[in-house]
Each structure stands twice: as C-alpha cells, then as structure tokens.
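User: I'm writing a tutorial on reading structure tokens. Could you give me a worked example: one chain, its sequence, then its tokens, then a sentence or two explaining what the tokens reveal?
Assistant: Sure. Here is the example chain.
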Amino acid sequence: MSSSDIFAKSTTTTGSDVTLFAGPIRIKGFIVTPTGTAGTVTFKDGSTTLFALSTAASAASGPVQISLPSEGIKCSTNATVNLTAGVSAITVFMA
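And here are its predicted structure tokens:
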C-alpha cells in the first residue's frame, strides 16, 4: 500500500520544457496523445534528460497510456517534459 498521493499535470505546450513539479517527485505513468506526424516526448530532471520516447505518426491510434513499474522514475530536483510538434498532449501522473 502506497503512503503518498498521486496527482496529475497535463500540458499541450510544444517546443519548450514545461515544469511538471518544482521539487523532488516520482513519475508513475503518463498518457500521450499523438498527432498525424511522428513526435518525441522527453522527460528531464532539471536539465538532465532521463528518457525520451517516440510516438507513431498516427492520430487514429488515440492516446497511449504507459505505467512505470515499481516506484516509477525519480526526479531529484524537478520534473520537466518537452513535447515536439508530433505530440498534441500529455498527462503525467506523479507521487
């Protein structure tokens, strides 16, 4: 049983880093909504890239949900995300 609350932050901003949470946090999962062109989602801890994923060029596939195993991915300073033009939105779940 988890002892922390889960909360969500959504963004549609592309081309620049968006702060999801200003402080230590764990990313537990996310929902990505692709567009008709391929795109990239980059997660960062401060200025350090944690991981990036590519989306398919298919708006018809609809939103894609990804749950991260165990304790998720730890951000020690702050959690940010950067979307390219091929991603229309993301909702990130954190604890």
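What the tokens reveal: The mean pLDDT is 93. The chain has one domain: 7-94.
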